[in-house]
Amino acid sequence: MDKFVWPVRVYYEDTDSGGVVYYANYLKFMERARTEWLRAHGFEQDALLREQHLLFAVRSISVEYQRPARFNDLLAIVSQVVEARGATLLFEQTVERDPAAQVLCAARVRVACIDAQTFRARRIPQALLEERGGDVGDP
């Protein structure tokens, strides 16, 4: 399955008092990369909400922080769907320092597709699965 890479520059506001990226901001970087992954596959979240009444929500996340990112670093957020089942997508994401591709943070993020009105799980639209080159149930 394809890897999607989204560049991020570390700004002062992303860092703590020691000049290191605050741990929660890695999650923000990964969230933006997943949004851009959807956009790159032709899907806008506001249109999915308006037209199909669906949302994506993080169901679970496992994160390992390995090395610090610092102010003004150029990072690459690498995202890959490794599993699509029914109503969930499992992403493997890394935050890497560019250009050395040194992994700073790694995560497995399970995202659920949910109905915007009931907040119950909903099957991932087939069009999205086909666009990403797979089908429901692909490991």
The beta-strand count equals 5
Q: Give the averaged pLDDT, no decimals.
A: 91
Low-confidence parts: 134-139
CATH architecture: Roll
Give the helices and strands, then pairings.
Elements: E1 3-9, H1 23-40, H2 45-52, E2 54-65, E3 74-85, E4 88-97, E5 102-115, H3 126-131
Antiparallel strand pairs: 1-3, 2-5, 3-4, 4-5
What is the compact description of this entry?
This protein has helices at 23-40, 45-52, 126-131, and strands at residues 3-9, 54-65, 74-85, 88-97, 102-115. The protein has 139 residues and is an alpha+beta fold.
Report on this model:
With 139 residues, this protein is of the alpha+beta class. The chain has one domain (3-131): Hotdog Thioesterase (Thiol Ester Dehydrase, Chain A). It has 3 helices and 5 strands, in the order E-H-H-E-E-E-E-H. The chain has helices spanning 23-40, 45-52, 126-131, and strands at 3-9, 54-65, 74-85, 88-97, 102-115. A 5-stranded antiparallel beta sheet has the order 1-3-4-5-2. The longest helix is centred in the N-terminal third of the chain and has 18 residues, at 23-40. The chain is elongated and about 45 Å long. The N and C termini lie close together (10 Å). 23% of the residues are buried.
